[in-house]
Fold this sequence. Notes:
The complex is a heterodimer of chains A (about 675) and B (about 70). With about 675 residues, chain A is of the alpha/beta class. Chain A is built from 18 helices and 34 strands. In chain A, about 25% of the residues lie in helices and about 25% in strands. In chain A, strand 32 and strand 33 form a beta hairpin. The relative contact order of chain A is 0.11. Chain B has one domain. Chains A and B meet through helix 4, helix 5, helix 17 and helix 18 of A and helix 1, strand 2 and helix 2 of B. The structure holds flavin-adenine dinucleotide.
Amino acid sequence: MARVGVFICHCGANIAGKVDVEAVSEAAINIPGVVYSSHQKYSCSEAGQKVIIDAIKENRLDRVVIGSCSPKMHENTFRKTVQQAGLNSYMLEIANLREHVSWVTADKDEATKKAMDLVKAAVGKVSFAKPLTPGQVPVEKRALVIGGGIAGIQAALDIADMGYEVVMVEREPSIGGRMAQLDKTFPTLDCSACILSPRMVDVAQHPNIRLLTYSEVENVNGYVGNFNVIIRKKARFVDERICTGCLECMGKCPLKKKIPNEFENGRAPRGAIYVPFAQAVPKVPVIDKEYCRYLLSPDPDKVEVKEGEKKPKRKCGVCAKVCTQGAVDFNQQDELISEKFGAIVLATGFNLFDHSKYGEYGAGKIPDVITALDFERIVNSSGPTEGKIVRPSNGEKPKRVVFIQCVGSRDEAKGVPYCSRICCMYTAKQAILVREKLPDAEIYVFYMDIRAAGKGYEEFVLRAQREYGANYVRGRVSRIYESNGHMVLKAADTLVGMPVEMDDVDLVVLATGSIAREDSVELANTIGITTDNHGFISEVHPKLRPVEVPREGVFACGACLSPRDIPDAVATAGAVAAKVGVLFSNDILMSDPMVAEIDPLKCAACGACVSVCPYSAITMEEFRGKKFAKVNEAMCQGCGTCSAACRPGAAQLKGQTDEQILRSIEAVLQW
Amino acid sequence: MVENPKFKIIGFFCNWCSYAGADLAGNLRLTYPADLRIARIPCTGRMDPLFALKALLEGADGVMVSG
Ligand SMILES: Cc1cc2nc3c(=O)[nH]c(=O)nc-3n(C[C@H](O)[C@H](O)[C@H](O)COP(=O)(O)OP(=O)(O)OC[C@H]3O[C@@H](n4cnc5c(N)ncnc54)[C@H](O)[C@@H]3O)c2cc1C
């Protein structure tokens, strides 16, 4: 007969505030199989763990149930605890009384009843637990970095400098991310490209880094130390090995001024064959197949020609003709690259709120209402206006420039309740840049609160106001409309409690908030991790494990976690590199023993499991004329699909057997 | 729901998505009715139809599979 011990954690008031822990603990003693039950303030504390260890020894417990926070928090902690008491670490079951009960239930009685049920389920399940032994798996000491912004660049360089191989996958034709689009950077005002470009080149030249641009991650399988990743390298139609980066082709493309350049936020054109910006790494153009005349014209080999008619010719192809190296290759196809990695780093960054959702600011239709990112490009000497600050509507210098903060930040009505954290600072920076280029312009900044927490940040904002004469007005702008070739702006000054109306506004710059990348949820699903309700990647623990995500061996840094500036992006990138280094300091990792096993005596050799296994981990074997299915434990991911498909019950997932699950259902409903 | 809070619904939640999602609901302190008892399964692939039948036979008012 099993001897189960039940330990209920108060978690301070986190659980005990809603659940009557004493009642749960008392009731637990009556659950079949339970011989011991107690409750502690903090089971995870040293003292709490000692109570558990002592109770196991004194009461000769052979199984343990702990009612505490989610198993995702402390399952590993408690596995070690029971192991210290001499039990197999898998003779443990956690009842999730915090995330699934006390934190989500309004009524105390109901919470207590639910907690009792979850404890019963855990006892039922652990009663059929069997000791399990982890296997050993080697660690593939190579890292995949997804995203080549400043965060990804820093992480890749640090990991590569430790001596490990890195593959960097960047979706765009060049690395650099948003930082490459910026002009100068707060709070020091150094030129963004000047500090970024050398790092981009370092990535390209580092012997340990392989750069795959214009590529995306398509599929991720496996587990910590042993991920199998499929990367799609999109057809570039230019052979990277041959191209010398002379860019002769770009000048000859008939569409060279016809397509809005994404890098310039659409404010300058590019051709169908292009590099997004002059310092692009790699400096190898891509051909955009959505626009290229050659690629859009029908393939003569595939067109049916009637007798006597001439085969149609492909259009254009000028770039191929002018390339002295023969690097243009219209026949290039997407390539699927399959690679093995021990660790995955996410550094996919952020996007910007679409201000067309603000009807009161012209819904994106007033030409002289631009975004802060537009401004970065306009003020940049290699941008669309060669650094001249002009009004998009008429190309004239603006005399009155207004900045509006919190557009798509701290606005619950627009679904963005959070602070984007960088806008107060970049707005102050942009106000300074306006003053440097337009000494006579009037500058206004409408703000809600100034959030300038950071080294030298508050001083920077004060400088914008005092030295550079930016007029800060506290209040939200309620409306902007066009009138007589200028704009009229209506707002409230909440410090003096007066309405403000401003005519003759020439340029409005909206500090649009940071949002998650549009495909962040999809990417998270591909990798098997989660995002918060705004699409930013969730950390395991926001305070203590800020760069780890809830899938072991996967890490994240930079603005894909939450809005952040360059110093914070770089700091988290370094933290990720350190974590990867720790992981790679192991030659061997313990593998999860919760894999499937198939009892050859029960197996009917029907092959159902072989066909349903998503990981191709099951094969048919034969021994002395009897066929049976066999699991490759190294490939099994423990999903249990085989177990559900197996009619004779031969396939069982260790730690999640039919017996265990059925008994836990019975326990909740009958005990 | 409010008048009869004594439903027992057995949830079978995938460890990687929905179970984590239910944890997230906790982290965000979103309250919801206490009728749901969530069992953590490694993947909805593990969901044997037998589990749902067993739950209903033992008297569950409903079964929720999420993954
Ligand atoms: C207008 C403006 C001004 C700013 N000014 C300053 C400043 O002065 N000082 C400062 O410190 N900070 C400033 N910032 C903030 C700064 O831009 C960010 O801190 C920084 O860019 C974050 O870097 P990152 O690498 O995390 O993300 P990003 O720069 O967004 O880089 C992410 C990279 O990942 C790639 N990617 C995305 N998804 C995928 C995918 N699925 N697969 C492969 N690749 C992918 C992207 O193409 C991109 O190259 C400013 C931001 C804005 C908007």
